Amino acid sequence: MTSDPTPTPATTSAAPADPLLAELLGLAREAGRRAGVLLRDGRPDDLAVAHTKTSAIDVVTEMDIAAEKLITGFLAEHRPDDGFLGEEGASSTGTSGVRWVVDPLDGTVNYLYGLPTWSVSIAAERDGETLVGVVEVPLRGETFHAVRGGGAWLDGGAGGGAGAVATDGAGRRLAVRPSPELGQALVGTGFGYLTDRRAHQAEVAHRLLPRVRDIRRGGSAAIDLCDVAAGRLDAYYERGLNPWDLAAGVLIAREAGALTGGRAGEPASGELTLAASPGLFGTLQGFLEESGAWHD
Ligand code: IPD
Ligand code: CA
Ligand code: CA
């Protein structure tokens, strides 16, 4: 159950006091930075689809695969006993209790088309609980990061968004926007790659659009969740996410003061992921329940 708000942490610094958390955060940030550079600078002009997965429009490029290899190789070099779950096939249990959950390129379709909204998402979890999350957004020059209980932080970027509230020289601490009424909310969402699923997702969006300020479909779930954290969206929801899409971003949103979850009483999951400023969460969750946003 993750829909309870994380109490506003007392910390005023992005640097965790716990040595394990500090190590995991440092490694995640460096792995994200390296993968971001590879993806940004190494994108071939003639980038093509390497293969497809769940449907003909669920694409993988050689760069997705290269980025996952870089990330898992770097992390395994420093922490050989950890487990991995990566979108492009990394899967191991490890013996340390820590597992890395990695989407090496979230927003592949944007990347394929040369659009800027794509990211690298890296989370470290223990006993199913996300401890650390990093979302690197190279073409914004931004790194979002959070450690459980330590607030959400943003390094780089040109500013903007209502949620960046303070600076301590090591990045800006993030906070969600003040909650609007549903009718004034800017809501992000996404659509899956399966025809039947997206047909129903379109019906839900069709019902929602007249009830809100507007809808955004950015194309990277990890960035959508960070945009809630940064006050650039009031809320985000999507059905059909995988653990690598949501692990880092949900922690970052929650640490910025968002409520996160799925159907009432459930944690964010493939069934439904929702992140929203606290005063909006319940209303939107109720709407998504009534609209059947949690099924195909
Ligand atoms: C996708 C993106 C997209 C979301 C899809 C995801 P990928 O991840 O996050 O925004 O709508 O559900 O699968 O395939 O680009 O890694
Ligand atoms: Ca993804
Ligand atoms: Ca991906």
CATH class of the largest domain: Alpha Beta
Reported by name, the CATH topology of the largest domain is: Fructose-1,6-Bisphosphatase, Chain A, domain 1
Cα-atom Rg, whole angstroms? 18 Å
DSSP helical segment count: 7
Instruction: Please state the average pLDDT score.
Output: 93
Bound molecules: D-MYO-inositol-1-phosphate, calcium ion
Q: CATH superfamily of the largest domain, please? A: Fructose-1,6-Bisphosphatase, subunit A, domain 1
Structural class: alpha+beta
Gap from first CA to last CA:
23 Å
How would a crystallographer describe the biggest sheet? 9 strands, mixed
Q: Per DSSP, what share of the residues sits in E-state strands of 2 or more residues? A: 25-35%
Low-confidence stretches: 1-10
| DSSP strand count | 16
Gross morphology is globular
Strand order within the widest beta sheet: 4-3-5-6-7-8-9-11-10
Helix and strand run: HEEHEEEHEEEEEEEHEHEHEEH
Helix content, binned percent: 25-40%
Based on the structure given, which CATH architecture of the largest domain is correct?
A: 2-Layer Sandwich
Overall tally of domains: 2
Short description:
This protein is 33% helix and 25% strand. By secondary structure, the protein is of the alpha+beta class.
Give me some keywords for this one.
296 residues; alpha+beta; Fructose-1,6-Bisphosphatase, Chain A, domain 1; D-Maltodextrin-Binding Protein, domain 2; 2 domains; nine-stranded mixed sheet; five-stranded mixed sheet; 16 strands; disordered N terminus; binds D-MYO-inositol-1-phosphate; binds calcium ion
